[in-house]
């Protein structure tokens, strides 16, 4: 499955999401009863590319705002998403922030159809690169996390107010705030000797 990005000047090869396999799990009886409840979406393998241009435009607002005055009997609910072997890239050319990761396994669970909801998540991945400007901070490090994610679909925001991530078996606390035109990530290092910390997360080729 291929979903092109939403830039007005996009080319045919520009990618927001591509996956070799997309599976939907649901109960056939629910469909018979006109209850469109998807229990799980499985994506593997694939690639996700989120980009923000220098003028602030992003490539992931692919759906037009809905007109709430229009009534419809069709409602689709989604309970969980699972992804394996997924490449993730985020490039913000307005503030020169770049993130690349290879996701081994990701699980998200929650009421995806609500306007505001919390997701329980677990994620194991390799941080290929975290870079601001010309300076890479973390390169080629294994990481794991399990956090609660707050999503507001009206504001287009994703927040992790208080999370913990293990990078090369060292726990870090972090806060994440994603808005339509920005991504802010704050990471707090543990209280361990700087030499040990540097050796643990030294740049790897």
For this entry, give a set of tags.
205 residues; mainly beta; 13-stranded mixed β-sheet; 2 helices; 6% helix
Secondary structure layout:
Layout: E1 2-4, E2 15-19, E3 22-26, H1 28-32, E4 36-43, E5 46-52, E6 76-78, E7 80-92, E8 97-109, E9 116-132, E10 135-152, E11 157-167, E12 170-179, E13 182-188, H2 194-200
Parallel strand pairs: 4-6, 4-7, 5-7
Antiparallel strand pairs: 1-2, 2-5, 3-4, 7-8, 8-9, 9-10, 10-11, 11-12, 12-13
Q: Would you give an account of this structure?
A:
Helices cover 6% and strands 59% of the residues. With 205 residues, it is mostly beta strands. The mean pLDDT is 80.
Distance between the termini: 32 Å
Cα Rg: 19 Å
Overall strand count: 13
Q: Which series of helices and strands comes N to C?
A: EEEHEEEEEEEEEEH
Mean pLDDT, all residues: 80
The total count of helices amounts to 2
* SS strand fraction: over 45%
- Describe the global form: globular
Give the % helix.
under 10%
Short characterization:
This protein is mainly β and 205 residues long. The chain contains 2 helices and 13 strands. The radius of gyration is 19 Å and the shape is globular.
